[in-house]
Amino acid sequence: MNSLQRALRSVIRKPIKSILLLLVMITVCLFLLCGMACRNANVQTQDTTRQAIGAGLRLDANEKNRSKRLTECSQKIGEGQEGSYGGVHQEKLETAYGTQWLVWCDNSFDCLQISDIEKLAVVPGISDYNISTCITAVNPVGFDRIEDPDMDQTNDMGGVVLIGNRKMELDSNVLSGNVTLKDGRMVTEKDQDVCVISEQLADQDHLVVGDKIGFNDYHDPEHSQVHEATIIGIYQTEQLMSPLMAGDTFRSENIIFTDLRFPEKAEGSKNNPCYEHAYFQVGDVDDYDAVKAAVSTADIEWERYDLIDRNGNMSTMSSNFNDLEKISTLLILITFAAGFIMLFLIFVFWTKNRNYEIGILLSLGYKKRNVLGQLFAEAFITALLAFVISFTLAPAASSVAADYLVSAQAEQAELEKNINADKVTYSTVQSEQTVVGVEVDITKEMFLICGAGMVILTAVSIGTAGIGILKKNPKDILSELV
Amino acid sequence: MILEAKNVSYFYKAQKDKLILENVNYGFEPGKMYALLGPSGSGKTTLLSLLAGLDIPTKGEILYDGNPITARDLTEHRKHHISLVFQSYNLIDYLTVVENVKLGGQKTPEPILDKMGIGKEFWKRNVLQLSGGQQQRVAIARALASDANVLLADEPTGNLDEATAWDVIDLLKRIAHEEGKCVIVVTHSKELAGSVDIAIRMDQLGK
User: Fold this and answer.
1) Exposed, middle or buried: residue B115 (CB in 10 Å: 0-12, 13-18, 19+)?
2) Contacts of A10 in chain B (CB under 8 A)
3) CB contact under 8 A, B90 and A360
4) Torsion (CA) A398, A404, A406, A412 in degrees, nearest 10
């Protein structure tokens, strides 16, 4: 009677032992499959999400360099001298407290260099770009801004703010998902003298797409030229945008998006724009690092700028999946480790409990490898059964596991959000991007990997447990028998 | 001589001062039934283990057909030269009667079981469903399923009632006389020892 025949009889006729092993193996198998399914779902979803959300690089002015340039310009004008140089102006003021010096910069000093932006825009891998102006306060003409009736407006400039964009769909507020269109369309690079207003402003002033509203310099609202812009869209926000400064001028509802060159006209600085940010969209997010490297080597005056990874959404969104991926990977590793320990202990228990049987077989002249072969065969027969059962149950189990992981992750994210409440401030509104579900699928590859994993796990466990048999002298095993 | 102990001494490795067997010399012939007789601790089971190739002597050697059993793998010696019967039957509990006998060797089990007086109705039963006497007969049948010329039995009647015990002794005698096998039985029963061809007292064997 060979090992396989004995193994088959042992598996069938000793059901308690076999069922125990079978249950452990099914559990290990299911956990492995669930882990792999969740991990795979994460990777797939993450990839899709990354592509869908996109990523890019933002160019901002370097603050340290700004201070340096300011000092240099002041030195060029000369200490104790009035004058202008490179967009920096020094002016002497005689006040009641004596002579005061006023130093101020115009748009030309703070503006990002358009030539540099255009150089970066043509770097391979950059699919599109946007330029945003600094927030420009202007006086509203022909419409009323939104005001808090309980607020003292004495120190407020009584205006609204404009943000000019080359392509509004790439504005940070839009990219974050906070600003969406309620009506009309967004500003494109071909537009001129157009604007997109908030729904609150539209409601209050009964403004609709196609209407025209005017703006002029808030410093001299009586005499400065009024510039009109046609409303092409009405936006709504998920959450109110954080104001740049205090006062109703900067409140979220009074922010008006315009075409790129409109704010400079409205504030009376025509042909003297103030480009504050440039955003370069990466065509394929998988090439993000390579594109960033290529952008970094472009021939521009880099000390003037900071290049900022603007993949915040991607990171926010991906971090959810990354957590899931980490949990899934951890699940697989823990299952392997726990599976090994459980199977090892079961097999140690087996060999110890079956010393009697092993002794009989050795006394009958069976070789140790034949005896060990029977244990291997029994384990693999059970593993095969576990495999079949697990594969049947895997799709349902992995779906449940994925749902659980997602809900656990969402709970954790909510908890962290609550913990961090009031501790962190954001320059832009954080978008809500919690994962609510993932598609799990059991593939053929997973079956194969799980099968191979189980074979290795079983072989290693029983091999380790079986070392005892190989090391023992037959007399030691048989001493209880003879 | 089919099996021979030559200058065999044995002591436990952990207790080197405790000599179990000292300079044992004895030859066993085929077609005879031997009884190793002695009180507990006299070394009879140890000698049986050495003859069975379950252990090796500290000094001296065991010869089978004139050749040291250590010249080949001891597993081969156990498989082809000797067969063992134990006091507690030592049958495998998840196998049937026939399957247990098949474990012993290549011979067809049914005629052997017939000869052992195990009725056909028991053949496919689990061995645990048999009486003690029946189980010992199955164990002997398993020993006979191999081509081994030597049958070693350690207290084969220890767990049996008197009538069944004598049946088993008769059976072993027949095996020795009719099949020409060398049967060596370990026992502490003087009555049983008196009924075999040659009774060997352990104190006469060199210790």
Assistant:
1) middle
2) 94
3) yes
4) -150
Handedness of CA B21, B23, B29, B34 (dihedral sign): negative
Task: Provide, rounded to the nearest whole percent, the portion of chain A with pLDDT above 70.
Answer: 85
pLDDT at position A321, please?
56
Question: Angle, nearest 10°, between helix axes B162-179 and B132-144?
Answer: 10
Partner-chain residue, chosen from A9, A365, A482, that has the shortest CB–CB distance to B86:
A482
Q: Looking at A48-57, A228-237, B9-18, B194-203, which range is the least confident one? A: A48-57
pLDDT tens-place string over residues A272-324: 899 999 999 988 877 888 998 999 999 998 999 988 876 545 445 555 556 66
> Which residues, 6 or more positions from A378, have their beta carbon under 8 angstroms from its beta carbon?
A7, A10, A11, A18
Task: Answer whether A475 touches B (CB < 8 Å).
Answer: yes
Contact A233, A268 (CB under 8 A): no
Lowest pLDDT segment from A111-125, A173-187, A359-373, A405-419: A405-419
Averaged pLDDT score across all residues of chain A: 84
DSSP string, A388-449: HHHHHHHHHHHHHHHHHHHHHHHHHHHHHHHHHTTT---SSPPP------------HHHHHH
On whether the CB atoms of residues B29 and B138 are closer than 8 A, the answer is no
Q: Give every residue of chain B whose pLDDT is below 50, as ranges.
A: none
Of the candidates A10, A363, A366, the beta carbon closest to that of B54 is on A363
Assess contact for A296 and A119: CB atoms under 8 A: no
The structural domains of chain B, ordered by start, are 3-204 (3.40.50.300)
Find the range with the poorest average confidence among A150-159, A420-429, B109-118. A420-429
Best of B62, B64, B94 to disrupt the A interface by mutation (most A CBs within 10 Å)? B94
Nearest CA in chain B to A10: B94
Select the residue of A9, A367, A475 nearest B54 (Cβ to Cβ): A475
Count Cβ atoms within 10 A of the Cβ of residue B118 and give its class: 0-12 exposed, 13-18 middle, 19 or more buried: buried
What's the pLDDT score for residue B152? 93
- Token representation of residue A262: 């409109």
B99 and A478 within 8 Å at the Cβ level: the answer is no
CB contact (8 A) between residue B78 and residue A478: no
Arithmetic mean of pLDDT, A144-173: 91
